[in-house]
Amino acid sequence: MTIAFDRMSGPDWQHLMLAAADAIDANVDELSRLDAAVGDGDHGVNVATAMAYTRRHLEELSDPTPADVFKVVAKGFLDEMGGAAGALFGSLFKAVARSFQGALVTTAGQLADAIEAGCEIVTRRGNSQPGDKTMVDALVPAASAGRAAATDEATSGEVLDAMALAARQGAESTVDMTASRGRARYAEERSIGVQDAGATSVALILEAWAAANTVRSTE
Ligand code: ADP
Ligand code: MG
């Protein structure tokens, strides 16, 4: 694989985001079940609603830049999902769009930068830390793993794989935590034993990106 081939264009990101929308659709009930155990049980439907907007509008874009793709995704979360989690996912993808602004293709290093920027804004706006049992428990390790993987010789695929693995482990680590942010904090001890819904969505999205990219780069 040459480095030039590894660079990701807007249509590549369009393809990865559509794969993420499919992954969320396939897990709507599971995400809502996780949220119902500690919150109001709407997380699966919330994320799927934002993704439905994303799918509709992404399919209309012809030859977008990477930033164009993430502007659409951010808008879906900000305008269609609502609530605390909608604003946080919206900020995440808006930060990615801002980070990719002006680039026709993204490199492994730009990908690590973008996810770090997104993670930073989510922790700041959500006022949450790893250990609070939120999406941050998947995002922070994903951003760190992406940064560590993005050496000069790294491919975007290696960075995506590292982020996906760390996000999944981070989401799984929330099972034993007690929630202290969002609606789930009212569940207190009841939240122990249940994986956080938002962290699970982050893991599903990053795993879908990694899997779709593997298919893309072997085609
Ligand atoms: P709502 O809580 O408004 O019903 P959702 O059910 O869609 O929204 O999303 C719940 C998810 O949002 C949680 O599982 C958690 O990951 C995330 N979340 C909630 N509050 C925060 C916060 N302050 N910081 C980070 N993530 C949060
Ligand atoms: Mg909810």
Task: Give the tags.
219 residues, 72% helix, 10 helices, Serine Threonine Protein Phosphatase 5, Tetratricopeptide repeat, binds adenosine-5'-diphosphate, mainly alpha, two-stranded antiparallel ribbon, binds magnesium ion
Identify low-pLDDT runs: none
Please indicate the count of domains.
Answer: 1
* Shape-level CATH architecture: Alpha Horseshoe
CATH superfamily: DhaL domain
Spatial shape: globular
Mean pLDDT: 93
Computed Rg:
16 Å
| Count of alpha/pi helices | 10
Structure description:
The protein has a single domain, classed as DhaL domain (Serine Threonine Protein Phosphatase 5, Tetratricopeptide repeat, Alpha Horseshoe), CATH 1.25.40. The chain is mainly α and 219 residues long. The relative contact order is 0.15. It has a two-stranded antiparallel sheet. It is globular, with a radius of gyration of 16 Å. It contains ten helices and two strands, in the order H-E-H-H-H-H-H-E-H-H-H-H. It starts with a helix and ends with a helix. 72% of the residues lie in helices and 2% in strands. The mean pLDDT is 93. It binds adenosine-5'-diphosphate (ADP) and magnesium ion. Magnesium ion binds next to loops.
Topology:
Elements: H1 3-6, E1 8-9, H2 10-26, H3 28-38, H4 43-60, H5 66-81, H6 83-100, E2 105-106, H7 108-126, H8 136-149, H9 156-173, H10 197-218
Antiparallel strand pairs: 1-2
Helix pairs in contact: 2-4, 2-5, 2-10, 3-4, 3-10, 4-5, 5-6, 6-7, 7-8, 7-9, 8-9, 8-10, 9-10
The structure holds adenosine-5'-diphosphate and magnesium ion.
